Amino acid sequence: RELVVAIRNATGDASVRNALYLQAMTCQRTGEVIEATWGEFQLDAKVPTWTIPRARMKIGDPSRPDQVLHLAPQTVAWLKTLPKDKSGYLFPGRVERSFVTSESVSKAMRLTLGMKDKHTPHGWRSSMATLARGAVDKDGRPMFAESWVEGLLDHLSGDAVKAAYLRKRDVDGIGRVLAWWVGHLGV
Length: 187
Description:
Elements: H1 2-9, H2 14-26, H3 30-34, E1 41-42, E2 49-52, E3 67-70, H4 73-79, H5 102-112, H6 123-134, H7 146-152, H8 160-165, H9 171-185
């Protein structure tokens, strides 16, 4: 939570700071976050989503579906405050029609936020996965199916047979994990 507050209050490039913030809230890879365009977001839909095109994902296998994330209400409210420019990117770079660089995001985490050797932008993914796998409800049962956590991370099952039969992700379950995560961050 302290790191999330530090990101929100950091000085410097607003696009870099905002990219770090979205990455914290969605646990997506740096490349997927920095290249996000406004056209990928359906913020006013009944269930607000961010659809990340498969071609831009680390695993660009066209036989796999795009990554669809149900966004937490806090994430949607924050996204609606961001300015839009003619580039179409959420996090425009300094060069016209470009986006911020992964190096600038990493550098901000290391230097501006003082996280060198402590946390990386990609670390949100492992932090969320560790905490979500250990989260239990009041009856002591796991709150989330393993497939929901792995789906949020865009991982396939380690079991090749299971992976071959997994054609559809549980987008609602992934959304439950994201809503819990954003609440856990205190956003």
